[in-house]
């Protein structure tokens, strides 16, 4: 079969502006590692996210930088004397992190910052708090869920991220001054949960018209 030239490139573009997303409405929630994770994340009838499981705490405001996910893959090349290019490449590691600046200095954000389990946080987010750091050997593991929404009503699209075994792996500088909002600069590392065998889930759903 002879090659056929494209007559009009614009007519065969496979693009869809409904799949271009900005996530202006979002939340991040944390629970103790002992808290059961959801088996599913969306209601099949409405397409909307299911209610957060008992034990998850919504952390409040996130600065306009939003949630920044980093992914990296490490690999190792195998070379032979007869070839200048590698004859094979093997993946040796894969990591995922989530970076966020929390914009509220609430009791839950500060409990996370000081490496306390969720069970040690006050029951109310706006409660008075006091945390004392002493001898620390490691940060605790948590469960993590994020829900983001683009659009409203029947035009809404929802995104879920789930971390089955996460912990705080890095913290940024803390600044208290007259002009800048105090933030908690926090990076989470994601690890495989030995019970479920899962590290991370990302899922998306569109709102569905019900009764139409």
Strand content: 25-35%
SS class: mainly beta
Using only CA atoms, what is the Rg? 22 Å
Query: How far is the N terminus from the C terminus?
Result: 47 Å
Structure write-up:
The protein has 212 residues and is mainly beta. It has one helix and eight strands. A hairpin with a 6-residue loop joins β5 and β6. The model has no long low-confidence stretch (mean pLDDT 95).
Task: Please supply descriptive tags for the structure shown above.
mainly beta; 8-stranded antiparallel β-sheet
Strands, helices and their partners?
Elements: E1 25-32, E2 57-58, E3 68-78, E4 88-102, H1 107-113, E5 142-150, E6 157-171, E7 184-190, E8 200-206
Antiparallel strand pairs: 1-2, 1-5, 3-4, 4-7, 5-6, 6-7, 6-8
Summarize the structure.
With 212 residues, the chain is mainly beta. Helix content is 3%, strand content 35%.
